[in-house]
Amino acid sequence: MRQGWRWFGPDAPVTLDDVRQAGATNIVSALHQVPIGEAWSERDVRERQALIETTPAGRVPLTWSVVESIPIPDAVKRTGKKAKAEIEAWIASLEAVAACGIRIICYNFMPVVDWTRTELDFITPTGATAMRFDHERFAAFDLFVLERPGAEADYSPQDMERARAVFDGMTKEEVAEITRIITSALPGSTTEPLTIAAFRERLESYRGVDSRRFRQHLIEFLEAVTPVAEARGVKLTLHPDDPPRPLFGLPRIASTAEDYAQLFDAVPSPANGMCYCTGSLGVRADNDLPEIAGRFASRIHFAHLRATTREGDGRSFHESAHLEGDVNMVDVLKELVAEDKKRSAGETIVFRPDHGHRMLDDLKKTVTPGYPAIGRLRGLAELRGILHALGAPPT
């Protein structure tokens, strides 16, 4: 397996030398500066690739192995194959990436919001901080800040009573903070927060798009792009929903093993693959992570390895240290290693420590939410230790 590290570009607080010192060799990156829906140019991809792969004298070489992500425009999610121009632009980006020899592309198909949390610096018992999703705070936002029409149908009377109590206890500053956090969780990771009015409009644009239609739109997208990917030797890897359940009354269709099975049955191309994210899938107690890894082993080309701890009734959770929480990382890695050993050197699984606690000196710095250097450094070291113990030291 190949050690990866997500790098957000030359302006990111974590540098390429930081990545080298962490021990990673494969970079996961994207052209975040390109607006969603606009085609990437081969020139821009090569410029970023040269920045990553031009090794200063005496430094460890790095390889840009995974693109994460080429965001899928909203029009594709809402209308499927009718969004011809947007799909063609996405294919052009794929072709630019393939021309540069990058063979793995990660993407997601979550409507309106990408990963969603209610807190970015939840204080853990060690004093480190983690990202957290608090169901009651989320319900308070949905019901009483966003005031989404029809939201009451998604919550029990008890849920609404608790959400009201939470909302009544929030200060103006806390309301502003949770609004900023949730409305910033947009595809592309660098999008400015939406206003509440704009957020409502975005949700309204999905009226009538249920899970059946939404899944069909993803299938139509894959039917258009996988022949191109297959012809160019590119593996497309769909990231699970995060959290893996509907939010804001919108469907989510990459949350369980059966969700993936339907997509692989509908589009059986070997280019149609999976980004195996233990943190996202692990939020659901009914997702058997080692079983999922074994079942879809041949489809896994990229792995996000992190752990979460489910709280209370399982609807709230927080990010754990990589070997803690509700993920059995040893059994997961046994399955991935078994698959990895079947592959040639250029086809092995790229994994990265996903997210990480904000700890030590990172508590004093500005960091990208979920991506501090030291917490990920600890995670990668722990994952590397398991792989060595399994007799499969990573490259």
Automatic annotation (TrEMBL):
It catalyses: D-mannonate = 2-dehydro-3-deoxy-D-gluconate + H2O. Its EC number is 4.2.1.8. Its cofactor is Fe(2+); Mn(2+). Keywords: Iron, Lyase, Manganese. It holds the Pfam family UxuA. SUPFAM superfamilies: Xylose isomerase-like. It is an enzyme of class 4 (lyase). Pathway: Carbohydrate metabolism; pentose and glucuronate interconversion. Coiled coil: none annotated. It comes from the Bacteria. GO terms for molecular function: mannonate dehydratase activity. Signal peptide: none annotated. Catalyzes the dehydration of D-mannonate. Belongs to the mannonate dehydratase family. This is Mannonate dehydratase.
